[in-house]
Specification:
The complex is a heterodimer of chains A (about 350) and B (about 260). Chain A is built from 14 helices and 4 strands. Chain A has about 350 residues and is mainly α. Chain A has a two-stranded antiparallel ribbon. In chain A, strands 2-3 form a two-stranded antiparallel sheet. Classes of the chains: A mainly alpha (about 350), B alpha/beta (about 260). The complex binds adenosine-5'-triphosphate and magnesium ion. The site of adenosine-5'-triphosphate has 12 residues of chain B, from strand 2 and helix 1.
Chain lengths: ~350, ~260
């Protein structure tokens, strides 16, 4: 019902493949234009939100697709950030940076592996899993506060080495300043998005959604659902750890990154953007991120109230989030534009 | 009743007992099913029929008794391991995955028991041509082809029951345990379900729990009558329907 039925020079726009390419090119153009068009401050903010949206994307895989609710997903982000920052406090240069990536991704993945085996295999599920992750977040945040020598305590860690990567043709590049962290984060997001999309479209992705729908039925088909959930948890926590590692380009890591409040924020981003859509949580993070920034400038102490109310409004009016709503709008517009031709 | 010796028995269970509090849902119950046989289990509400399936499928541990499926002892296996041996179970309440499309149901069922690399498409898997042919034939016969891209939650009750059966077949089972597969279906749907089950019994053992005696008459080679967790009687449909005991216990309580 697309290209072949619609002669004329515009028909390629309706071909889903070329439309997807077009969207990708447009996104790349926008992403490339931001550092040139926006102030360094705005680019810096965008970088943070892009890094956060990787975290939201991983939360979407876990919660939106797998139905696994975690109230402590940010803990894995914070662990990645701390692990990378601690590595960079001791090692510098390109090799230090690569090791920081390995450790920043590895530590949260290992914790996820342990949690999966202890919790999913003993059938700790649903809200109990959420509560365990919540409790662990509190533990890790407290640990980060009290072990001052290692983590810098309340003040957090700063002054660690600047992450440096080697690129063909460019040599060693410091991920510092405004533009470089931005570019690296956008590339990180693109890679994670591609990975997430590939996972959700595979049979593994279908099985994950089947777990969300009816885990016991899937088990009765012969699937080891505890194992699948553990794999999913490790993948998403590795992604959260990557985001945390990228966060070290901000130059500062603090205990709040491990905490429950931050985890709740991630849930809010995913919920507002639209869980189970991949794109929605990214949009939600960036939208709420800027909203929070503006509101916290205007109303220093009560801004979380506004974000909370916004979240409530979304839950009440568009329970599936903003993105499915936008998507339906786009479909309606397309159908409306097609009608004259269909009747004519 | 120790029938575990015959080589072509795919189910042979003996002495199964399961108590819930003071209720004996299964009370020294034994069952033997041959390959390519279709067997019906009837009995009044609470006779223990569903409990029997849950015990066979590994969802409930019996208090006592032995179970052999496909020639091996499964007493120590869990539900997933039993499923992988080739035992597909449909419980009393139809259960499909509401947000998955029909196509997706078949895809994950076909790949049940494979590893994560195969699920992610990183490694190729072997596909059975015979099974794929059977599935597409059934999809056509049951008019499910046109629903392929629809989510299960959009299907009618009868279509969902069929989808669950077709999904189970995609795992290439050798034993099918179906708890009330015709429940809630309209008359013509029931007829098609009966045809389907008879067709399947040419390839595997089929055990069906059913309340509707007209439906039982359509499908069963032989019928088992359960009452209070025990075997009341068994035989052909005609034999059991002439049995005065059955009339008293089953039809009596069904009309009461
Ligand atoms: N999980 C359970 N906990 C407690 N009692 C149970 C449980 N499952 C079944 N029972 C009891 O065991 C007995 C047998 O139940 P079962 O569901 O096996 O009967 P059934 O023959 O399938 O009945 P129906 O025709 O109504 O489906 C009933 O008395 C029931 O109340
Ligand atoms: Mg029952």
């Amino acid at each position: 019902m697309n290209a072949t039925l619609r002669p004329g020079r515009m028909s390629w726009i309706t071909d889903p493949r070329s439309r997807r390419l077009l969207v990708l090119l447009a996104l790349a153009a926008v992403a490339a234009a931001i550092p040139a068009a926006a102030s360094p401050y705005a680019v810096g903010l965008t970088t943070r939100f892009v890094v956060f949206s990787i975290l939201a994307l991983s939360m979407d895989l876990l919660w939106g697709y797998g139905g696994v609710v975690s109230f402590g997903h940010a803990m894995f982000f914070g662990l990645g950030a701390y692990a990378a920052a601690i590595t960079l406090s001791h090692l510098t240069g390109v090799s230090g940076t690569y090791l920081a990536f390995v450790i920043g991704i590895g530590v949260p993945s290992l914790l996820a592996l342990g949690l999966g085996f202890f919790l999913f295999y003993s059938a700790v599920a649903g809200v109990y899993f959420g509560i365990v992750t919540l409790a662990l977040s509190v533990v890790f945040e407290t640990l980060a506060v009290v072990s001052r020598d290692f983590t810098g305590g309340m003040d957090g860690l700063y002054g660690f080495a600047i992450p440096t990567i080697w690129l063909p043709g460019l040599g060693n590049v410091e991920i510092w300043g405004t533009e470089n962290p931005y570019i690296v984060s956008v590339v990180g997001l693109a890679v994670c998005f591609g990975l997430a999309r590939w996972i959700t479209r595979s049979s593994f992705g279908i099985a994950i959604r089947a777990i969300r729908d009816d885990e016991a039925r899937l088990e009765l088909l012969g699937y080891n659902t505890a194992f699948l959930k553990t794999v999913l948890l490790v993948i998403t926590c590795a992604m959260a750890g990557l985001a945390g590692t990228l966060y070290t380009t901000v130059g500062f890591v603090s205990p709040q990154l491990l905490g429950v409040f931050f985890s709740t924020q991630v849930l809010v981003w995913v919920g507002i953007g639209g869980r189970g859509t991949l794109v929605g949580p990214i949009l939600g993070t960036i939208l709420v991120g800027f909203l929070e920034t503006i509101l916290s400038g205007e109303y220093e102490n009560i801004w979380p109230l506004f974000v909370g109310l916004f979240f409530l409004a979304i839950v009440l009016f568009w329970p599936r989030g903003l993105y499915p709503f936008l998507e339906r709008g786009a479909v309606a517009v397309r159908r409306f534009r097609r009608t004259p031709e269909a009747t004519g | 009743m120790t029938a575990a010796t015959s080589p072509d028995l795919v189910v042979s269970a003996s002495g199964l007992t399961k108590h819930f509090g003071g209720v004996a849902a299964l009370d020294d119950f034994s069952l033997a099913v041959a390959d390519r046989e279709i067997r019906c289990i009837v009995g009044p509400n609470g006779a223990g029929k569903s409990t029997l399936f849950k015990v066979l499928a590994g969802l409930l541990r019996p208090d006592a008794g032995r179970i052999q499926l496909l020639g091996s002892d499964v007493s120590r296996l869990n539900a997933r391991q039993i499923a992988r041996m080739g035992v597909a179970t449909k419980l009393q309440i139809p259960r499909v995955f509401p947000s998955l499309t029909v196509r997706e149901h078949l895809e994950i069922a076909t790949r049940a028991g494979t590893g994560v690399p195969q699920l992610l498409g990183l490694r190729r898997r072997r596909e059975s041509q015979a099974s794929a042919a059977l599935i597409s034939e059934l999809m056509t016969d049951l008019d499910l082809v046109r629903t392929r891209d629809r989510q299960a939650q959009e299907l009618s009750h009868g279509q969902r029951q069929w989808l669950e059966i077709v999904m189970m077949l995609a795992t290439q089972p050798r034993i099918l345990l179906l708890d009330e597969p015709g429940a809630g279906m309209a008359g013509d749907e029931k007829g098609r379900t009966a045809d389907l089950l008879r067709e399947l019994a040419k390839r595997m053992a089929v055990v069906v729990i059913e309340h509707d005696l007209a439906f039982v008459q359509l499908i069963a080679d032989s019928v088992i009558v359960m009452h209070r967790g025990r075997l009341l009687t068994q035989g052909s449909f005609d034999e059991i329907s002439r049995d005065p005991q059955v009339g008293l216990v089953y039809l009596g309580s069904a009309t009461a």
